[in-house]
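Record type: monomer structure entry
Structure origin: computed from sequence
Chain ID: A
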Amino acid sequence: MLTEEQRRVWPWIVWNLWKKRKELLFGGRCLDPLELVQKAAMEANEWSLAQVVEEEWIKEERQRSIPSNGIGNLRNRTGLVGGAWVLRNARGVVLCHSRRAFTGVKTRDEARLVVVLWAFESMKSQRQSRIVFKGELRELFGAVERPQAWPSFLFLVSKMEKELSEIRQWRLSVINREANRGDFFIAQSVTKYGLINSYVAAGHPSWLFELFVNESRTL
């Protein structure tokens, strides 16, 4: 009897066999069976994780439509916050992405601010210009663009403007969760799955391949 994990991994073994065959025919690279099985197992696990994340996202979206008391469902009371940004080109293709874990964060507003400042600083350090920053950040983005309408945000605005002042040509755009699913899933993996290692990587996460490819077609 095959285990659930073994049944899950065999399509990726077949897929990697086909790719390795092409490498052997056109690149002269010999097949490494152990490498193939390990890579297939990793891709199968990442795909499985993506399905879990997708299902939980759907459940959360349904719950968002149900009225709740107080300030909402604050499941993470440890001060740990996950942040993510994804850099796309004008065609919507992902050039690189990053994930980071923040600790000691006390409120949702503070969480949003530290993630936004980190994203601004990241684009500045990478010398990016002509950037459109998109996020579920109506209050913060609104305070930068119309500070007179958000007087209580003046101190936060000064911090954001300091980072933005060193980026040539930028614009802020408020989007909803549906349009921000990829970034949300990457950030959520910090608190929901304990993936606290921060990193910057080319392209998009392999476990969200299908999601980002579909997103790029709609941008």
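Annotation 1: Residues 2 and 42 are 18 Å apart (CA to CA).
Annotation 2: The chain has a mean pLDDT of 78.
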